[in-house]
Structures are given as C-alpha cells and as structure tokens.
Design goal:
The complex is a heterodimer of chains A (257) and B (253).
Chain A (H helix, E strand, L loop, with lengths): L2 H6 E12 L2 E12 L3 E5 L6 H9 L6 E6 L2 E2 L7 E4 L11 H11 L4 H14 L15 H14 L4 E5 L7 H18 L2 E6 L2 H7 L2 E5 L6 E5 L16 H15 L4
Parallel strand pairs in A: 3-8, 3-9, 6-7, 7-8
Antiparallel strand pairs in A: 1-2, 1-4, 4-5, 9-10
Chain B lengths: L1 H24 L9 H14 L1 H33 L1 H16 L2 H12 L3 H25 L3 H9 L4 H38 L4 H11 L3 H29 L1 H7 L3
Classes of the chains: A alpha/beta (257), B mainly alpha (253).
Bound molecules: adenosine-5'-triphosphate and magnesium ion.
C-alpha cells in the first residue's frame, strides 16, 4: 500500500481469515475505513460482523491477515480504539459516574481528573443528574448512553460500535441516529458501526460495506454522497436515500431465507 | 418491613418450640425431653459455667478450620475459576471430598494425625472447604464474558480485571459459599468431637447421654444450633455492610 491510503484510512483490514474450530467466519476479508468517516457493516445475522469488530478491537486474534490502525499493525487492544458493546457491558454495581470513568480508571487517570472528564461526557449524552444511579435504575436507552459516554471519554480516534442501538425503542433509536450524525460531524473520530437495519445504515453512513453470509467477505461498498450535507430531517425523504435503501435490499434479499 | 420479618421469626420459633414441648410431653420417646426441661438444663449448664469451658474447647478447631477453609478455599476457588488447567487438576479432589462419607475417613485421619486438634481441624476443613472452593470457582468462571472483554478493551491489566471486575461480580456467590461452608464447619466440629475424642460440647452430649441426662444432651445440641444461627446472621450483616452497592446493583440485573 502506498502512503496516500495509509494516511487517509484510520483502519485497514487486509486479507483477514478467521476460523472458529471448523467454522470459517471470515474468508479473505479486506476493507478500508477512511479517517473521520462513519462506515457501517451490514450483513445477515451470523455473517461475522461482531467477529470482525472484535478482531479490529484486538480482543480476538485473526487466523491470518492483518489489521492496521493508524499505520500500526494491531496485536491487541490499544488506546486508539474504544468499543461500544451491544449488551452495554456496564458494571452493575457501579454508579453511572464510575462506569463512565471506568476506561480512564483502568488507564490510571487520577480520580478527580477522570471524574471531571466523565462529568463532561455524561452531560454530552444527556444524563446529567443520573451520575449516582446504578445501571438497573436506568432504561435500556440510558444504559447505552452510559456505554457511549465511557467510550467517548477515553478519547480514542476510532470508535467500534456493535449494534449499539438494537436494544432501544424506535423513537430513542431515531434520536440516537441524529446524535450520532452530530458526533461524526463534530468529534473528528472514525466510526465503525455494525447494524442490522438497512435504513439506519444508509441514514448515518458515509460508507456502507455489505457483507456476504459466512464465510464472510465484502460483497459491495456503497458511498451515499448526495444527501450527507443536507439538513438531517430531510434525509429520509431524499430520493438518493430511498434508492440506496432499495438497492441494498435487492442485494441482500437473495440471502434471506 | 423489618418489623414484620422479626415478628415472623418470633412466630416460627414459638411454633417450633411449642411443637417440641408437646412432643416431649406426649412423650415421643422416653429419651426425648420437653423444651422447658431442656432450657432448664441449659440454664444450669450456663450458671455452672460448663457450657463456656466446653465452647472454649469446641471453638478451637471450628475457628481454625473455618479460617483455613475460608482463606485457602477462596484462594483456590479464584484460581480454579481463572484457569481451566488448574480446574481440571484440582476440582475433582473437592468434588470427591464433598461426596465422601466423612465418617469413613475419620479413622484414616486419626491414624495419620492422631487424636489431637490437628485431626479435628481437618474434619472441619473437609466439611467446609469444598463448598467454598466450588462456589467461588463457579462464580469466578461465570463472570459475564462481556464485562471482562470490556475491561480488556479499555486496557485493564490482568490484575485490574480480576480485582475490579471479576471479584466484585463473583462476591455475592462467594459469600453464599462462605455461609454454607461455615454451617458445614459447625457440623464438622461437633462430628469430630463425637467421633475422635469427646471434648467440649461433644463431651457434654456423649457424657449426658451415657448417664441418661437427656435434657442436658438436648440443651447442648440446642446451644450449637443457636450459635450457628447467630454466627450466620452476623456473617450476613457483614456481607450486607461490605457489599451495599454491589447487592443494590444485582437486584434486577
Ligand atoms: N466463540 C465462538 N465459537 C465458535 N463459533 C463462533 C464464536 N463466535 C462466533 N461464532 C460463529 O461465527 C459466526 C459469526 O459470528 P458473529 O457473532 O461474528 O456474527 P454477527 O454477524 O455478529 O451476527 P449477528 O448479526 O447475529 O450479531 C457465526 O456463525 C457464529 O456461529
Ligand atoms: Mg453480532
């Protein structure tokens, strides 16, 4: 690869294979994630989206191939990546404040400093006043915002989000999608976003990677471009938006059933 | 709420002691004294001071055995929970220990360690340790994979992940094991005094049975149960105090 691509891609996945015992989850998968953009991974259930995200996070070793983050090969978790978990992965006994600050706590940031940072992100995700609650006192949507605030507070360049909105209701989900678009615009981070929803992927993404069923490869990359800079509330009526949703459904429907 | 729990406890005690009194008066067996007779005997044992010297003796193997079981048991349990290999190696020992007929092992212990304190401590440990080890191991092993992965992804060291994630998550079940272990330890302590050498409370039981002083015998048995209940209650208090936040978090999750 030349310098041009390494400087504009936050994450590059090169020829990654992943086998679980005799199950081949990923087969020769290559994909680039441009810096500062949001890329969605869209594909049928069980095709290996979580697997890919965990390999990029360094939580799972690839069987072969490599992942490059900001020019360096991934060998394990690093400070340049933060994960938002599908099941929130909050400490049930810890307050919202401690949960949000937990990533910083593990990095050895002193208590007063990390709590000040956590306070800021708690406010950013709209949870001010809930600092001392424990997770079971919160709704699903609020718990996910705790997970998001925790990932934001370690200030990693790459955010890995595994179906972050799948456990929340439709209204909350739409609100989160709008918030996510704002985040992408203002935070100057790279987002890797797994979703099951075609509409959601088209709505929030700069780039959509369609994955084939197991063993998974990238079948198609779609870059919605026309409506990205239009006002948020007109996107769902945009004709390009609707066309892309249809086109993706055409590609995927052959794999359903 | 608290008030109601207390009155329920009193009610159930009254029912049990009432039934005991009735059964003693019928009588079910000539060797079965009434509740009031037993309490009178307990009173005598108390003012004579016999019961205190007896417990001074009985508590020795009990306390030593329970402390050893708690420390080694929780330590081994954590290790078992963290390492598959170690589990494969160690946990069969405790599973066998838990199901072994203790009475059959006692002659063996006496042969090796004699009839002194050591053998009695061993009996307490054999009773108390397996349940502590197995509960701790299971709790550590079953820590939610996702919060452990969370710790790894946010760059927690192995030590941090164990201390800040795995142990707090496992602590409620570890305490259940501890409580079960302590009550098993009580059984072990009395059993060792009945089967090895009659000392302490075991001596009161054996001696009063040999002279057909059944009220004293039941008084001694009653005092053991009372002590065990009080001690378990104390342990529960400590647990609630230590893990206020944790228990709160586990209410519905
Ligand atoms: N630990 C594991 N051991 C064995 N097989 C696994 C393991 N984890 C995942 N797999 C298999 O690998 C494949 C991909 O799993 P993965 O969880 O990555 O899919 P996914 O695309 O995230 O699915 P979903 O959309 O349902 O979340 C699945 O067929 C799954 O059965
Ligand atoms: Mg998944």
């Amino acid at each position: 690869m030349n310098n041009q691509t390494t400087s504009t891609n936050a994450v590059s996945v090169r020829n990654v294979f992943k086998n679980y015992d005799d199950v081949e989850a990923l087969h020769d998968l290559s994909l680039d994630f441009p810096k500062g953009e949001l890329t969605s991974l869209l594909g049928p259930s069980g095709c290996g989206k979580t697997t890919l995200l965990k390999i990029i996070a360094g939580l799972l070793p690839a069987t072969s191939g490599e992942v490059i983050v900001n020019g360096k090969t991934v060998t394990g978790p690093g400070p340049d990546r933060a994960f938002v978990f599908q099941d929130f992965a909050l400490l049930p006994w810890a307050s919202v404040l401690r949960n949000v600050a937990f990533g910083l706590e593990l990095r050895g940031v002193p208590k007063s400093e990390r709590e000040a940072i956590a306070e800021k992100y708690i406010a950013d995700v709209g949870l001010s006043g809930f600092e001392q609650k424990v997770p079971h006192e919160l709704s699903g949507g609020m718990r996910q915002r705790v997970g998001l605030a925790r990932a934001l507070s370690v200030n990693a360049e790459v955010l890995l989000m595994d179906e972050p909105f799948s456990a929340v209701d439709e209204q909350t989900r739409r609100k989160f999608q709008e918030d996510l678009l704002n985040l992408v615009k203002h935070e100057n981070k790279t987002f890797l976003f797994v979703t099951h929803s075609i509409e959601e992927a088209v709505y929030v993404s700069d780039q959509i990677a369609l994955l084939l069923p197991r063993p998974s490869r990238v079948s198609e990359i779609i870059r919605p471009s026309g409506f990205r800079h239009k006002p948020i509330d007109s996107i769902r009526r945009d004709s390009e938006y609707l066309d892309i949703v249809d086109k993706i459904w055409e590609s995927l429907r052959t794999y359903v059933e | 709420m608290r008030h109601r729990a207390l009155s329920l406890k009193i009610l159930s005690s009254v029912l049990i002691f009432g039934a005991w009194e009735v059964a003693g008066r019928v009588p079910v067996s000539f060797a079965f004294p009434t509740f009031l007779e037993s309490m009178a005997a307990l009173w005598v044992l108390t003012i004579e001071g016999t019961i205190f010297t007896a417990y001074a003796e009985t508590l020795k193997p009990l306390v030593v055995g329970v402390l050893i079981s708690a420390f080694i048991g929780i330590g081994l349990g954590i290790w078992i929970g963290l390492s598959r290999k170690f589990e494969w190696f160690i946990s069969p020992i405790f599973i066998v220990m838990q199901s072994a007929p203790l009475a059959a092992l006692i002659p063996l212990l006496i042969m090796v360690y004699g009839i002194g304190l050591t053998s009695k401590v061993f009996v307490v440990c054999i009773m108390a340790m397996p349940v502590i080890v197995l509960n701790t191991g299971g709790a550590v092993r079953n820590t939610s994979v996702s919060i452990v992965e969370m710790g790894e992804s946010f760059l927690g060291t192995r030590r941090d992940i164990i201390m800040k994630i795995i142990l707090p998550a496992a602590s409620p079940i570890i305490f259940v094991g501890l409580r079960l272990g302590v009550s098993a330890g009580f059984i072990g302590a009395i059993l060792s005094e009945l089967k090895i050498t009659p000392t302490g409370v075991g001596d009161i039981i054996t001696y009063s049975r040999s002279i057909a002083d059944y009220p004293s015998m039941y008084a001694a048995i009653f005092s053991i149960i009372l002590l065990a209940v009080l001690f378990l209650n104390l342990l529960e208090r400590i647990e609630v105090m230590l893990f206020k936040g944790i228990n709160k978090g586990f209410v519905s999750d």
